[in-house]
Amino acid sequence: MNTDQVREQAEKLMPGGVSSPVRSFKAVGIKQVVVKNAKGAYIWTWDDIRLIDLINSWGALILGHARDEVVNAINRAAEDGTSYGLTSYPEIALAQIICSAIPGAEMVRFVSSGTEAVMSAIRLARAFTGREKIVKFDGCYHGHYDAVLVSAGSGVATLALPGTPGITEGSVSSTIVVPYNDVEMLENVFKAYGEQIACVIVEPIAANMGVVLPEEHFIKRLESIVKKFGALLIFDEVITGFRVKWGSVAEIFGVYPDLFCLGKVIGGGMPLAAYAGKREIMEKVAPSGDVYQAGTLSGNPVAASAGVAALSLLKELDPYDTLAKAAVTIKDAAYIAAQKRGVPVQFNSIGSMFTIFFTDQKVINYDTAKTSNLEIFSRFFSKCFNKGVLLPPSQFEASFLTVAHSPEIVSQVAEIIESAIESI
What we know:
The chain is α/β, with parallel strands linked by helices. It has 2 domains: 3-62 and 319-422, Aspartate Aminotransferase, domain 1; 68-316, Type I PLP-dependent aspartate aminotransferase-like (Major domain) (Aspartate Aminotransferase, domain 2, 3-Layer(aba) Sandwich), CATH 3.40.640.10. Helix content is 38%, strand content 15%. It is built from 15 helices and 14 strands. The protein has a 7-stranded mixed beta sheet with strand order 4-10-9-8-7-5-6, with helices on both faces. A 4-stranded mixed beta sheet has the order 1-2-3-13. The radius of gyration is 21 Å and the shape is globular.
């Protein structure tokens, strides 16, 4: 079968022919990519076209595709059984790594997705505080859990949906949305509802409206407000955990939340996520406490083994400075091309993750992210794609570099991005 036949088959069997909306590539006006296989920095499409991958399973694959050490760990674990629905040592070993790497993560509960981690952490925060309301930030995406799928970025932004049908008013009636980086608005919200707010959940470095960095002191002031009113602070680090630095970005800001939500990198490319936090809070989770949460595949031994292998290798390699320098190489090329052609560009990056926005406004929140010219982005995406570089098919997603992106590959990416911007 050729790719068109595969797509046609997919569309008959799955909504839109995909298992997640952004994979449709509708936002950039091309047909969806169907992957045959991947290795290192590359994926091969069904038609055997090789592409340098800057999606990398939306950030999960910091070591690149099919890293031998991770694949070997998966194979060894699978030979002992693919699922038990019972406690096994790989999840204990992974918990030890996470707790030793993240100050403030004293206990961990494993789940299978970032959405599960978020919904469980919010439930726990409500139970611990005895309060109902939650605060999130405009453009931050915390999974497809009803209470937080309001004013979200990422796929919702790409598809221009205000939220989604099927979510009742009651599901979001206790959710308060504040602009990212707006401390004054947050203070006003707490003055009005402080005694009712259970938690504030935030991407400490936003990556679902594109990469958007917190302004100076934003995270510190956020922490002080939350503490003053006795609410809990939840860091959604499904993307940034072990991606920007070893462990949590909390150490960058000197702010340690009450709960962390983790995913992507900690699973080594397998479906695995977690929520973690202070012992006194986590011990309220059943069976230690009365806050119920369960999952047959939670802590799956194959996924946990992949996570142990990936994190162990990541600690050994310590690639963070090298990856950050690679992103700067691409940034310099983008700005050189933008200046030559007079194309408005903002390059937001931290560590190995970046987003190129086509706007002349500094991107500090969702409103400024939305000033990016989507028509230019679509043309830019197509030009890069045709030259062999696969970017995320949405202006509101982050690109990710990996250990597998050698200096030669990074130089090639920089040249292609420079050429693509010059040709717009």
